[in-house]
Specification:
This protein is about 10% helix and about 50% strand. The protein has about 400 residues and is mostly beta strands. The chain binds 2-acetamido-2-deoxy-beta-D-glucopyranose (3 copies). One 2-acetamido-2-deoxy-beta-D-glucopyranose binds next to strand 27. Keywords: Cell wall, Cell wall biogenesis/degradation, Glycosidase, Hydrolase, Secreted, Signal. InterPro entries: Glyco_hydro_28, PbH1, Pectin_lyas_fold, Pectin_lyase_fold/virulence. This is Polygalacturonase. Belongs to the glycosyl hydrolase 28 family.
């Protein structure tokens, strides 16, 4: 009995000491690793060394501190896991900038990412700092396929990214690939309206994504959802200028694309070329389904509601297409800058099914009636202004 008590006592002590030790966050400041933060000296190696220690820390929580009032010039770098701590916090208080001219970039591999986080479970990035991709040198001089993505997440789980300013990526600002459980909020992404391919956030092959309370103003899609993605919620987003929020393009080059359970709510589009769009390529396979757009405000948007299932009436052409079904639009209101408030262009051989529109009111900016066009879409429309011709009008019993 006495022995047992003694063993228990030791056991309790061990637990108590490890937990009190683990609960203390270890902080690794990049400046302690030799980063100058003067905006001119290459600070990449200091970040690489600091990350090695953060990732290897034998604690539950470790923090990488990128301090305030400093500008860190960084070459492409990889923050790779798996890491020891259950949660790693990257506290970005200062600014990180990419090299200014194209020729001096030193890529890690042919995939061309600037900052890549991969194979990490439990990552928090926040701090009110800024990411500047210095994209201007790339936009009109290098082919898009050779331009780098600024911030890339690959094979990560339980990630939150918040309170960050992110500007002028050479290509898309944030790409998320093969991740599960990721939340983005309180971010501001900005690049000139005429900067090419500067998507805000691109998602592919990922699930359980929540993007909210943010402003995205770029030269391409504010958010694009691509193949292999499901369970995405997007809410409280200001989008524009830009190309809107897009499912796709899906099915390019015969791709078997699968996207489902997407919920876009309470978003405002100002001066964008599209509002909410579903776009697929002819010859693709798979589906885009269970997609909800709710409480959408459009202000001077060229094409507020658009489904484009790229098709050809040419009988010789490919018959396959990505199936589009169960897409609903509720409470979509505002103005369009073209004649077209709603365009549902579906493949006559495949069609779009179970399209539900309810409480739609979009007029031209001068207040006159806008147009809705429709090919091979099946579904219902209630309280729709303009009326969408191929959807049946819902008549209450
Ligand atoms: C998305 O919203 C639905 C309905 O509000 C909720 O049940 C679900 O947990 C949310 N998912 C994410 C990933 O935010
Ligand atoms: C809609 O979004 C705006 C802007 O982010 C926010 O202020 C408002 O609370 C949101 N409304 C609802 C009902 O979620
Ligand atoms: C409106 O849409 C219909 C059907 O697609 C089309 O025939 C017509 O030309 C459009 N009108 C305008 C003003 O764009």
């Amino acid at each position: 009995m006495k022995d047992l008590f003694f063993v228990l006592l030791i056991f309790v002590r061990v637990i108590a000491s490890t937990s009190s030790c683990d609960s203390k966050t270890l902080t690794f400041n990049v400046v302690s690793y030799g980063a100058t933060g003067n905006g001119h000296t290459d600070d990449t190696q200091a970040f690489v060394k600091a990350w090695k220690d953060v990732c290897g820390a034998t604690r539950n929580n470790a923090k990488l501190l990128i301090p305030n009032n400093k500008i860190f010039l960084l070459q492409p770098l990889s923050f790779k896991g798996p890491c020891n701590p259950a949660t790693i916090e990257v506290l970005l208080e200062g600014t990180v900038i990419a090299p200014e001219s194209v020729g001096v970039w030193k890529f890690l591999d042919e995939r061309r990412k600037w900052m890549e986080f991969s194979d990490i479970c439990g990552l928090v990035i926040k701090g009110g700092g800024q990411i500047d991709g210095q994209g201007a040198a790339w936009w009109n001089s290098v082919d898009v396929s050779n331009r780098p993505t600024a911030l890339h997440f690959h094979n990560c789980k339980d990630v939150t990214l918040s309170s960050i300013h992110h500007k002028n990526s050479p290509r898309n600002h944030i790409s998320i690939d093969t991740c599960n459980s990721l939340e983005i909020s309180q971010i501001h992404i900005i690049a000139p309206e005429e900067s090419p391919n500067t998507d805000g956030i691109d998602i592919s092959g990922s699930s359980n994504i929540f993007i909210h309370s943010s402003t995205i103003q770029t030269g391409d899609d504010c958010i694009a959802i691509n193949s292999g993605t499901s369970l995405v919620n997007i809410s409280d987003i200001f989008c524009g200028p830009g190309h809107g929020i897009s499912i796709g393009s899906l099915g390019r080059n015969g791709e078997d694309a699968r996207v489902e359970e997407i919920y876009v709510r309470n978003c405002t589009f100002t001066g964008t070329s599209n509002g909410v769009r579903v776009k697929t390529w002819r010859g693709g396979e798979g589906y885009a389904r269970k997609i909800r757009f709710e409480d959408i405000k459009v202000v001077g948007v060229k094409q507020p509601v658009i489904i484009n299932q790229d098709y050809s009436v040419d009988m010789e052409s490919e018959r396959s297409a990505v199936k589009i079904s169960e897409v609903s639009y509720r409470n979509v209101k505002g103005t369009c800058s073209s004649d077209s408030a709603v365009e549902l262009s579906c493949d006559p051989n495949v069609g779009c099914s179970e399209i539900v529109m309810d409480d739609i009111s979009i007029s031209k900016e001068d207040g006159s009636v806008a147009n809705a066009s429709c090919t091979a879409a099946q579904g219902t429309c209630s309280h729709c202004n303009p009326i969408v011709p191929c959807l049946s009008t819902f008549k209450p019993l």
